Amino acid sequence: MCGYSFQPSVGASGGLVTVWDSARVDVWSSMSFVHVLAIKGKVILTAEDFVIINMHAPCDLAGKKLLWNSLNSLVLNKSDVCLCVCGDFNSVRCVEERKGRGDVFRQTDADYFNKFIIDSLLIDLPICGRLLTWYKGDGVSMSRLDNFLLSDKWCQNWPNCIQIANQRGLSDHVPLILHVDSANWGPQPLQILKCWSDYQGYGDFVREKWKSFNIQDWGGYVLEQKLKMMKSCLKEWHIQHSQNLDGKISEVKNQIVVLDLKGESSDLQEVEVRELQALNVHLHSMAQTQNSIQWQKSHLNWLKEGDANSKFFHGYMSNRRRHNVINLVSVDGVSVKGVHNIRAVVFNHFKVVGANQPSVAGLPFRRLTYGEAGNITKPFSLDEVKQAVRECDSYKSPGPDGICFGFIKEFWDLLQDDFMRFMVEFHRNGKLCKGLNSTFIALILKVNSPQRLNDFRPISLVGCLYKVLAKVLTNRLCQVVVSVVSESQSAFIKGKQILDSILIANEVVDEAKRLNKELLLFKVDFEKAYDSIDLRYLDAVMTKMNFPTIWRKWILECVGSATA
Hints:
Blueprint: E1 2-7, E2 16-21, E3 25-33, E4 36-43, E5 48-56, H1 61-77, E6 82-88, E7 98-99, H2 107-119, E8 122-124, E9 127-128, E10 134-135, E11 142-143, E12 146-151, H3 152-157, E13 161-165, E14 176-180, H4 202-212, H5 219-241, H6 245-265, H7 270-298, H8 310-324, E15 328-331, E16 334-337, H9 339-349, H10 370-375, H11 382-391, H12 405-410, H13 412-429, E17 439-445, E18 456-462, H14 464-478, H15 499-515, H16 535-544, H17 549-560
Parallel strand pairs: 5-6, 9-13
Antiparallel strand pairs: 1-2, 3-4, 4-5, 6-12, 7-11, 8-12, 10-11, 13-14, 15-16, 17-18
Helix pairs in contact: 1-2, 5-13, 6-7, 7-8, 11-14, 16-17
């Protein structure tokens, strides 16, 4: 059975109607004023209170300003419940959300709308399916006028909310659906947390476990298996010590309340006073730990740990999660949904593309000297391996092994012998054991509200062993790269910037215009260039540049052994 509330139309302006399923929600009040229809109720399954404000904003700026002010007061007064403001706002937030003939974007209108969203502490979700929601029908005029704006508490209770724009029918507006996505993208690897170091006995636990591992094989395999076993041990340790902190904090708070209430009616005994003091210290310690965990997961590099409360970190993490999830992509004009379907089109889009490489025979290349060639192939030293570890960020997203460099740095004295054995054996035989170069492929957004796979760029999250090896080789290559790269190249060269070429090109164009000279510009771009490189071609180029045989073997093993 469905319930409903409505506001009748006025003249040519359409009315408002809100319909709900009475078996799922219990609505106990409805409120209506100009341009707004609001309901308040409770979700029966979770007993969560909510407010939904359905609205249709006027077209004139003065009317919008009055509406934004009244809505702002209403929203802030309902900050203790889950709140959603939805409908036709008749405003856009930026110039990218409106297209048409001539100057159709009004900055003042956008500024007032943005101020309303910020002042009301509302969250604007990314839109899936298409970028705009209103179409005039002439193929020119179109805007994003419809939206769901959510309160922070709504997003905390339903963190996987997305808004999906469906196909347009008879209306000039597209149907917009707010959907809670519960798709399962598979298990997530354990991440080593910075706060574990603050627990008493953590260091002793790690050292005792590491020394108990007894594995005989190649250095790379031994180190890989030891880290794998250590991760399993830390997972069990995490369950016992730092998991379910919310429940443990709530339990300690309840114990403090009991003692506080007892102290109001009578004096506490000495044992109870000490217990209360210990509970307060324990509560403070757990709160700091919880804050540290959320700081690490939020990836806020500009904010120091402890500078903000847990609620801020939680909101930031939820926002990152909403923007990073892929719910729908458009492939050749067809919308693709679902975990398995999206995985299939992603693999097909980013798969390695073969290419016929031209011959480098007869082409002049700058070459390494014999001294430079000897320097990049000398035995690996403990200092340069330690430097490579030190240069890696401590708590960035780990690869398949789940080991972050904060752990390696903290226990370097324990791990360095195993790392050096791995490096020495790779220097001697140039081989990586199976699985050591496995990677996670992560898609990074290039634009807001991505619709196509070209709106993402892929990056590889590699394991810590391979990252150390790659860092050492990169540091050696940096010492000689200026000897083989053209002086005119500005990208990926220390001390130069890729924008240098743009600046030079701009100066050349200005000079040609000033002197009235003819000018021809030729721009070449390479689509997915790295994915189309043939290993034999790479080897041929390194040979022409006089890279030693052992160096070429290392590089081909690193590049050719990668799996995802």
